Structures are given as structure tokens and as C-alpha cells.
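User: Please fill in residues for this 461-position structure.
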């Protein structure tokens, strides 16, 4: 796909995705603060400040008390590379051709004009931009980018904010990857205290109550506890350097939790993430914000916090300060993941979620080496299904095909188990969601409409 110079009327997207309501808020002060965006890999809202029992996250609980905790924050994709491509640009990954997981690694693909990484605008405004390598003593943070495009020049200036000029404000992005399923779960996570008793965890109803499932879920929660301790060390570094008061701290997940039916899918577990923002003395502490927000809105807001007017083409919108526009819907997309070819889109409002499966003949559980190797629950579900030991709710995910459309009432069915798409009394709601998605696809020129010319698979999960 070649670099595109036109941008297909993306400004109309604002009208589509918001029947926007203006809300009265105080203007953001023009103080040019430092800004740190902490991304924890593969987590949903399993923090104690979000009401999850058993897990202990005292650092993030305190951060939420000192800032704003968002209860309805969503990523635009349920896996890292398209999600990270979206947040670094403030654009839907489908609008910029970055929608297929770990694509465009060797084909020379660049962002379509006029899109740029948000760090370009921050740099022009005098900010030093950092992809942090060592966030604090004892906290190694990989300089992961995972962008599905080839940058025109380095996206970041350095690997530590101490490399900046004296008095220069900085923007830092850092990744905590211990929450990403992998070898860390068998080593440093297991070594961290306190441990979690698998008998005490609460499993979603779409998982079988099995020792393997309980142990795996407990390990996931333990990885969150370890991550929480790392955030504490990062915040302590800010205090030790005397910059805590003039630093905006943003904490979020890069996509949902790494479990079956969650990561790589458009259910809540794949796209609903924690989001906490603290700016001492400038943002009222202890707020709980229930607005629908997208991760690309964080990108636009970062520019605004830095005193940079977000460019008009952005899909993301400022979500703090005066004159903000509240979203009525969020949109998320799933496309090829590793060797697994699929295509899904979803529209979610405050009550309903609509998922369109463009390849319904393909099962949810298509062959996937990464999941078959790393997800204990993946093979467990298959085995229990063959033995006839799954409940109807648990068997949904192992079905040989998918419904073409899914519609869920999230107020009465938060686990998305009862598909309402075929029921006559929901015909009007279904029609509304169809119209919104069709308009979004056209208005944003969703690149998933076009076949992928070349699949260059990465060996990494």
C-alpha cells in the first residue's frame, strides 16, 4: 500500500462518533509540564481501585486517589502493534494502514500524509521525547515501539529524560512488560510477594472452574501486583529528582488482558483498559470519570497538555479541559493476528456493543502457534469441549463458526454471553449500530476493506 496524500474527510468522523455534547470544564493551564505515559502490557481493569478482589495494587490505588480514574477507557485494537500504532499517531490504525498485527516491517510503508507521530509535534514545541529504557532503579522497561509503519525519522530523541537539556520539558513513554504473558510469569512474577491463592480468584463465567484456569488467572493477577510495585519505584524517582509536582503521570494498558477470549478479540476483556491521570495541583484529585474515551484521545490530550493544538485531522480528541466533546461511541477493530487471518469491527456505547464478524465461517479458535504454546486455557477448553464438560457459556468460544453479528446489552450481560442480534425486539438497536459502523468504515476509509498484499510474519508473540 503506497503512501497516501489525501485523507478522505476524516474531520467528518467527529460528527459521526460523537453527537457531541459540550461540557463546562476549566481550561488546562499552559504550564508545559513533563508528561510520562506508563503502558502496562496486556491488562484489563483488574486493579483493586477498579473493584477487583484479591489483587493488591496500593500504588495505583493511591495514584487514582491523587488524580482521575477513568472507568470507560478502551483501546482501538485488542493487541499491541495496531494499538501502539494508533496511540503514537492519535489515529485509528485502520485509517493509516497499520491494522494488521506486526505488518509493514520490511516493505517500506510510511504513514499517509499528513499523519505524524505525536512526538513530532512535541519536539517542535521544545519537548525532549523519550522511550525509556530504565525507568527507575530495578525497573528495566523495554524500548518497545511495535509500530506497523516505517517512521520517516526516529520517533524518540533518547532513552532517558535525564538526557535532556537543563530546564527542557520532556515526554516519556515507557512499557512495563511483566504483565505480558511469557517467561517473566515463571520467574520474577512468581518470586514477588504477596502470592495469590488460586482458590480465591473469581473467574469469568466463560472459563471452566478448573485448577489450570485458576492457577493461570492467579499468575496474571500476581503480574499486576509486580507491575504496581514498579510504578511505585518510577513515582519515587520523580520525587527524588524533584519533578513530581510538574509531571503529568498517565497510566494505562496497551490492550486487554492476555487470556482466552480477551486479547486479540473485541469483547471487553480485549479492549477495556485502566486509565489513570494525575497532575498535582492542576487536576482535581479523587475524580472518577465515566465518559467513554479511546486511547487515541490520550494522544490528543497529551498534545493539549503540552500547549500544542492537536491537528484537525486527528481521530483522537482532547478529553480534559474546557470545551471537550464527549463520545457517544467508541470503535475498535481486529484484523490479522500473527498467522491467523480474521476481521472484526465493533461499536460500543454506554449500553450496547455491536460486533461484526466479516469472516463468520472461521472459528474464534483458529490455529495459532502462540496461543497453543503460551495459553494453558486454550488447550484446556479444547479438551473439555471434546469431553462434553463445558457449560453453554463456556462452549460459545469453541464453536466451529461465528455469528455474522453480535449484539450485547452490557448492563444486563457484562460478560457478553447472550447474543441479541437475532431477536426482533432489538432490531432497531441493531440497525442503529449497523448504520454507525457502515458510516465509520466509509468516512475513515477503513483500510481493512482491502486485502493485505504481503504477510510478513514476526516470530515474536
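Assistant: Residues filled in for all 461 positions:
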Amino acid at each position: 500500500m503506497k503512501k497516501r496524500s489525501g485523507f478522505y474527510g476524516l474531520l467528518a468522523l467527529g460528527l459521526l462518533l460523537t453527537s457531541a455534547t459540550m461540557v463546562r470544564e476549566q481550561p488546562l493551564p499552559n504550564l508545559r509540564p513533563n508528561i510520562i505515559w506508563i503502558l502496562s502490557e496486556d491488562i484489563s481493569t483488574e486493579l483493586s481501585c477498579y473493584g477487583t478482589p484479591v489483587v493488591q495494587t496500593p500504588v495505583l490505588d493511591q495514584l487514582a486517589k491523587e488524580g482521575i480514574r477513568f472507568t470507560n477507557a478502551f483501546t482501538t485494537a485488542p493487541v499491541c502493534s495496531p494499538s501502539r500504532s494508533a496511540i503514537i499517531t492519535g489515529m485509528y490504525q485502520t485509517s493509516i494502514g497499520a491494522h494488521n498485527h506486526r505488518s509493514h516491517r520490511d516493505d517500506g510503508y510510511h504513514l499517509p500524509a499528513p499523519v505524524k507521530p505525536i512526538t513530532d509535534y512535541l519536539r517542535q514545541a521544545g519537548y525532549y521525547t523519550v522511550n525509556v529504557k530504565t525507568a527507575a532503579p530495578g525497573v528495566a522497561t523495554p524500548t518497545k515501539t511495535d509500530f506497523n509503519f516505517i517512521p520517516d525519522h526516529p520517533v524518540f530523541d533518547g532513552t532517558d529524560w535525564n538526557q535532556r537539556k537543563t530546564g527542557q520539558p520532556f515526554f516519556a513513554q515507557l512499557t512495563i512488560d511483566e504483565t505480558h504473558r511469557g517467561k517473566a510469569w515463571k520467574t520474577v512474577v512468581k518470586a514477588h510477594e504477596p502470592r495469590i491463592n488460586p482458590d480465591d480468584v473469581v473467574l469469568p463465567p466463560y472459563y471452566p472452574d478448573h485448577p489450570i484456569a485458576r492457577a493461570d488467572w492467579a499468575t496474571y493477577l500476581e503480574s499486576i501486583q509486580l507491575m504496581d510495585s514498579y510504578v511505585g519505584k518510577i513515582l519515587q524517582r520523580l520525587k527524588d529528582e524533584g519533578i513530581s509536582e510538574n509531571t503529568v503521570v498517565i497510566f494505562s494498558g496497551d490492550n486487554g488482558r492476555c487470556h482466552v477470549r480477551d486479547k486479540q478479540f473485541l469483547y471487553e476483556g480485549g479492549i477495556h483498559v485502566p486509565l489513570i491521570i494525575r497532575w498535582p495541583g492542576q487536576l482535581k484529585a479523587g475524580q472518577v470519570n465515566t465518559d467513554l474515551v479511546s486511547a487515541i484521545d490520550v494522544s490528543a490530550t497529551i498534545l493539549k497538555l503540552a500547549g500544542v493544538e492537536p491537528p484537525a485531522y486527528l481521530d483522537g480528541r482532547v478529553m480534559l479541559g474546557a470545551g471537550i466533546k464527549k463520545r457517544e461511541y467508541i470503535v475498535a477493530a481486529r484484523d490479522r493476528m500473527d498467522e491467523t487471518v480474521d476481521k472484526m469491527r465493533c461499536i460500543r456505547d454506554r449500553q450496547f456493543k455491536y460486533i461484526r464478524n466479516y469472516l463468520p465461517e472461521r472459528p474464534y479458535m483458529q490455529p495459532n502457534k502462540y496461543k497453543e504454546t503460551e495459553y494453558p486455557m486454550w488447550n484446556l477448553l479444547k479438551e473439555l469441549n471434546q469431553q462434553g464438560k463445558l457449560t453453554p457459556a463456556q462452549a460459545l468460544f469453541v464453536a466451529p463458526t461465528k455469528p455474522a453479528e453480535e449484539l450485547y446489552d452490557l448492563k444486563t450481560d457484562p460478560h457478553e454471553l447472550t447474543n441479541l442480534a437475532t431477536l426482533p425486539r432489538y432490531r432497531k438497536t441493531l440497525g442503529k449500530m449497523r448504520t454507525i459502523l457502515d458510516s465509520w468504515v466509509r468516512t475513515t476509509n477503513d483500510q481493512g476493506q482491502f486485502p493485505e498484499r504481503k504477510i510478513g510474519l514476526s516470530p515474536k508473540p
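For context: DSSP finds twelve helices and 14 strands in the chain.
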